[in-house]
Amino acid sequence: MLAEKALDLVRELQRSLDGTLPPYNEDKIRQVLEEMQTLFDQNKDKAHFAAEGQTHLLSAIQLRHAAIRRNKRCLLAYLYNRLEQIKKMRWEFSSVLPSDVKYNLCEQEVQWFNQYNRLLANYMRSLGENGGLDLTQDMKPPKALYVLVRCLVDHGEFETQDGTTILLKKNSQHYLMRAECEHLIRQGILEHIVQ
Amino acid sequence: MAAYSVDLSTGNNYFDLNDILASQEKIPCIFNIAVEGLGYLDQSTPDPDIGVGTKLELPLWLAKYLHRDARGIVSVETPKTYREGYRQILAADPSVVDLHRLGPHFYLGGGKLALFNLPDIQDVLKTLLQTFQGRFRRIMDGSQNALHTDLTNQINMLDESERRLFAAGQRGLLEFQSWESRESEKLSTSSVVLNQRKRKWVGACRDSGD
Amino acid sequence: MQADEIEARLLRKTFTLFDFKGLEMLIKDFKRDFYDTLQRQRVLVLVAFDVDALCACKVLQYLFHCDQVVYTVVPVDGLQGLEQAYLENAEGIKHVVLINCGATVDIVELLQPEEHVRFYICDSHRPVDIHNFYNAVQVKLLMREDELSTIPSYDEVFRDDDEESNQSGEESDDPDSGYKKKRFDDESILRRQERRRWNEERVRILFDYTKFTSYGTSVALVMFESAWKLSKDTNSLLWLAIVGVTDQYVHFKTPRDKYMEDIIALQSHVSRHNQRGSDGESLLSVNCLRISFEEELHLNLYRHWTLFDSICHSMPIACKLRLWTLKGQKRLHEFLAEMGLPIVQCKQQFSAMDMTLRSEVKARMQEYMNKYGLENQDIVLPSFSMQFGYRNLLCATDYVLACAATLESLDASSIQTDNFLLASDILQRSNPEKTDTALEAARVQLRSLVSQVQSSLDMHQIISAGPFLYVFVQEGTADSRFFSQPLSLIRLARFTLQAHCSVTRNKKAHSLPLVLGAPLSLDEGTCLIIGIPPLDTDDERKNFFGKAFEQAADSTNMTVKCNGFDSFIIEMRVEDRSKFFDALISILQ
Where does it mainly reside (chain C) (predicted)? Predict the structure, then answer.
């Protein structure tokens, strides 16, 4: 059937959009592009004859054209929805992506992420009077300046804003500035304990 | 968060994955014009071409494209699941029908039929609306009041957009409860990280299992 | 002796730098001396692995949260752990709070901190090391003053005469010339004699002081009272203090008198916090914590078990009736029958028992107990219970057992610090499922404890070595792994001793202490040895085994490890055991 592979891509993305980003399926994309190329080549051949008056070929050309458009839509939707997901991750994790997430991006997506990062950073810097405003902080309204956190993994040393280093060792508990550790909580290194 | 937008419109949402999946639903078509060289679409004959009068189930996106101009390469019929027989079943008691079996994108796909000038399209659309009205109460009830019971049977009978609706309802309930118990104050690990970790863990288990 | 002398001299030098008498080693004003100095500082809190310490830590955490004091909490399981935790987290830290650890060792000597680091020790272990007590600059003690009255006076253990130290300094530097110079110096000879006498006296005083280990007031209670003085006490904190005090009783740290004293103090707090009018409008929501004082049945976990099992696993009544024997079981059946409690009812979950029976159990037991040689003390314990949400009442002793079982969980998938956090969650009360799991773990522990006691008795493994009784937990039995942890080990030793005393014909048994050995690690061939004092000194609960073990180890030149904070529990190699016991016997004779 026509445009079947492109649909696979869409299905694959749809299945995993509830939180993860599946690996960029370069292989499938290549196959879809090849299918489009074949259809396009066939149409180009036939269009030549059709222009010369063989109008009975037009129906086949239209059908193939429909398939090309369908493929294009699927591919674009695939890429677009991935970008949306990547954008969301910028807000979830701060400017550095966890390595296993990054591993699933293609090179262009990494570039896009970096550019988005830069745009966002520039914008945030321009906000407010002095030195900008970090919009990614306090995604939930904070109730207290400090929070109690538990360390879930051996993360190593962590430098706080006042310059002291804290050893984040598994199962140690710390009472820290909320603003400082929010990202570490998002990244699953610390667990927030609500009293 | 985008996961709970429930879009039942037939509006052409170009990048919407659900819309793409719904437009893959099949519709019976009859070819008015022969199509050369594409016989492989009809697996029932070895003929290299599609002849005039061939009956073929085509996906909605393709049918729509071939049908739209006046010349009409194909003419379409109402798909079986939207015909009189099923309409009667749905009219009798919409809440017991397994819509997922009738078509995982029953509403979205049904809505798309409006683009074709089918003779009974008004009845089809009316049925869609009435079916949804008839089923909504149970969906709402199930998602809001039965957090600790196994509702797999009910959920299995829902079409994809109903499932999203159901999930949205349940999520609302959960969030309300976590707000009540002051859980919503808690900063949590990003779901992306959690899922990634889960997959890694499953992967590791599988590797060690092999 | 030489080492002692040099040490004393060194310390004297340090102290003379400061006007020591103007400084307080005890924190008298919690707010001024402790709380206010910690404001806007980063604090490191090191907590020992026991229920009392955990409770105290939670109280302190609450106080810190009130005033946004930034801190780090690290659980430590022994002196090594303490040292390591300090090294890892010391950077940038000026204030260290030690909870239930560190008082019995010279903390400055152990950790070698920089000069600006201050230690605040809140520890129920006694005796307090004299260096901690007299180092008023770096070490502050957070404990009750009247409990430190036995500490030797400063002049008895440290000397202040500079001249002497200079001279003896020269003496040790250059013995030959010094010898010649002072040969005919009468004055100096006299002075040296006097000095020798002082030194001997010092050793004697120190020995007397450190001879017995015991426990002071629960640290959770001390913390709670401090919070109260700051007007920051809440009902939840009060419950933590109750659990801390009960922990001391459950693990035989404090005698019953001391326990009663604390309970009375707590009771006034309880009525202050839980005072409610009888009219409907002042009723609390079910989601509020309610604490009530009760003459609680002293049966372990009976609300979460069957009455029958609970009786069989509670030490006082099980020992009196000798429930591990067939005859004992018969007597128990008789007892239950006489009380009018049908055996079927007693063998189903207590919560499923007939309502009327349930409410009458205590009264009926008290009515018939005398006939079976039971006393009120064996059956009833003044205690507290709490209710939270729609769940069953939980009483303080059960809570302690559940927490202790969680702390010493043997779950292979979790490391020790996981257990600490889990126990901390249980104290938070937020998760009833976790509490249920903990109660189940406590039941499993109790079962294995009783079956261990039974097998020791059945196989006559409790042997008198003359000055003490001893028994070894056999290696490789299914339950032996439970006793590789201090809290369970303490309870096992005590249960064993009590059970033995109740069956033995030896009249002297009551005045004999017990030494119990349990396998620790089969791979490394190590075992734990615990010594507990005889039953007839039960109203003091002073333990002399810390010192005895130390001397026995010294006299045999063995390496024993005392890694926990209780010196009466030591770790040694299995093959050294018999040599160690010979030494111990000759010391105690």
Answer: nucleus
